[in-house]
Design goal:
The protein is mostly helical and 212 residues long. 77% of the residues lie in helices and 0% in strands.
């Protein structure tokens, strides 16, 4: 079999080129959402950011909604994988439960509920509110995120079967609390008291762990 010359680039398959273009457009969609919001991220704005003509775009997507769905799926799938890595594999007997909880919650807050990811999360949720097809596509991914946080985080704190279900539910409740804080800060700006409220929540959860 002939060996390609090191100076000659390897020709990519049509399928690879197609997937690369779809991902390029998905990335441009997220960039446009982050800068302009769902209302301002028109197809023209997205294509300008991607440097792609409308004719070329039409070879890869039938509708803007389909492209938004691919971009949102990538964003949320990445969050699911990241959520699994935030929890340690198992409890560390040398580290108090309160310290583990505090570290996990602050890591989740920084990773998912501040900055670009937070902004995109709410823009995607806003789009799904009025797009039933998008909502159906994203529902299992949102559920997967809750499963990853509830199951993995709960298991890292309470590996025994007794109380594991309740611990997982409390971790899901923690995510709902963080989302509420994020929405408040998105609307009104940073709230200094939120850090103190997260510390209070950690103490409450730690007390539950010690008693149960």
């Amino acid at each position: 079999m002939p060996v390609p010359s090191p100076d000659k680039p390897v020709r990519r398959s049509q399928a690879t080129r197609r997937e690369d273009m779809r991902q390029r457009l998905a990335a441009a969609t997220l960039d446009a959402l982050a800068v302009h919001g769902h209302a301002g991220a028109s197809l023209s704005v997205i294509l300008d950011r991607a440097g792609v003509s409308r004719g070329a775009w039409a070879h890869h997507f039938d509708t803007k909604a389909e492209m938004l769905a691919l971009a949102a799926e990538g964003l949320l799938q990445g969050a699911v994988e990241a959520a699994r890595t935030l929890a340690p594999a198992g409890p560390d007997p040398c580290q108090p439960a309160e310290a583990r909880l505090a570290a996990m919650i602050e890591a989740a807050w920084s990773r998912f509920y501040t900055g670009r990811h937070r902004d995109l999360l709410f823009e995607v949720a806003l789009a799904a509110r009025t797009d039933a097809e998008l909502r159906v596509r994203l529902a299992p991914i949102f559920s997967g995120f809750l499963t990853a946080t509830g199951g993995n985080w709960g298991l890292s704190l309470r590996p025994d079967s007794d109380g594991l279900t309740e611990m997982a539910d409390l971790m899901v409740l923690t995510i709902y609390m963080l989302r509420g804080m994020a929405m408040q800060e998105l609307a009104a700006g940073p709230v200094p008291g939120h850090e103190g409220l997260r510390r209070l929540w950690v103490r409450m959860l730690s007390g539950w762990l010690e008693k149960s």
